[in-house]
Amino acid sequence: MENFIVSARKYRPQEFDSVVGQAHVTDTLEHAISNNQLAQALLFCGPRGVGKTTCARILARKINERDGSTSEDGFSYNIYELDAASNNSVDDIRALIDQVRFAPQTGTYKVYIIDEVHMLSSSAFNAFLKTLEEPPAHAIFILATTEKHKIIPTILSRCQIYDFKRISIEDIQSHLRGIAKKEGITYEDDALYLIAQKADGALRDALSIFDRLSTFTQKNITLSKAAEVLNVLDYEYYLQIADQAKKGKMSEVLSGFNEIIKRGFDAHLFIAGLGNHFRDLMMAQSPSTLSLIEVGENTRGKFENQSTQWSPQQLIDAIEICNQADINYKNSKNPRLTVEIALMQLCSLGAAASLKKKSS
Ligand SMILES: Nc1ncnc2c1ncn2[C@@H]1O[C@H](COP(=O)(O)OP(=O)(O)O)[C@@H](O)[C@H]1O
Ligand SMILES: [Mg+2]
Q: AAA+ ATPase domain: from which residue to which, for each copy (predicted)?
């Protein structure tokens, strides 16, 4: 069996060009390197899984390449990496500081990457501070953290700070498309969108969901499988319930809801999700709000279609009904009934609307 390498590792960018969604950082770094304006201490901040460690390594390698301390096969002699999440004692940092004093044997710079720097114990922090105050000319520190607020001001003020951003859904989706192609994985585009949405801005999370799904679906990632694995209710359910409610088909709607509960889906999430579905239909009614719907292309088309069956006032009423049930849910002695009442109200809203249509 071939060894499976997780995508997050296999596709760690080796160049700034291939880092997604952080151009404001990577451009500045490229620029600083080529103009020799790099600070001696840099701090990379931002949420997890957005490329901080990756960029620290690329930058370190580039610094080494420039001063000729990289071997022919690309190995850099002067990069030291300390993961403060697991090496956070004062001894760990002392060992590092001891090395810092010596100039490199080849090249000009030694680059120290201290990852998860907020995890250093306070005594380790203090020991480090002295070095950071007066670093030898050959030392460059790249610190990375997800918790900028935990970094004491004296350190912050000594570092050039780079803020990494969460990565947009579209950027993640398009990155996943590229990997799927390389890996020979077939996919529904909306499934990739859903993965990207669930990853909440972290590319690493997106990649690990992607791997999980690719294994689970034997390299054919569909929207419905993605929804299943991610435990989100497939949009098709909402589309169907809204459709039946519009026709006033109360028994179908109620048994549809029962089906959803039986599949282990949370009733509270369901009614909140249905409210959001009607909100999306409202947004689908105008081109200027269409972009406020967070779903893939194909699904958006279906929403647009369905939205034409409802008047704006009916949608407001429907949203209100779902929202009330959402609010009342936790305080209800019979929360399931709370949701069912809302569904019945939606059906009579739909039925009344179609009656009106017939008589006019
Ligand atoms: N901006 C990005 N562009 C491309 N890949 C990324 C990006 N951010 C994260 N990744 C992917 O996720 C993995 C982990 O990223 P990493 O740089 O360790 O994140 P962080 O240090 O911010 O938590 C990388 O190996 C890469 O596959
Ligand atoms: Mg990291």
A: 38-168
pLDDT at 152: 86
- Give the ligand at the shortest distance from the Cα of 54: 1
Average pLDDT of the residues in 343-355: 87
Model pLDDT for residues 73-108, shown as the tens digit of each residue:
667 778 999 999 899 889 989 998 888 999 998 888
Which residues contact ligand 1 via a Cβ below 6 A?
8-9, 11-13, 19-22, 48-54, 167, 203-204, 207
Using alpha carbons, select from 294, 340, 346, 295 the residue that is nearest to residue 320: 346
List, in order of start, the domains of the chain with CATH numbers. 22-163 (3.40.50.300), 169-229 (1.10.8.60), 235-354 (1.20.272.10)
| Whole-number Å distance between alpha carbons of 304 and 288 | 13
Residues within 5 Å of ion ligand 2 by Cβ?
A: 52-53
| CB environment 27-44: b (16+ within 10 A), e (fewer) | eebbeebeeeebebbbbb
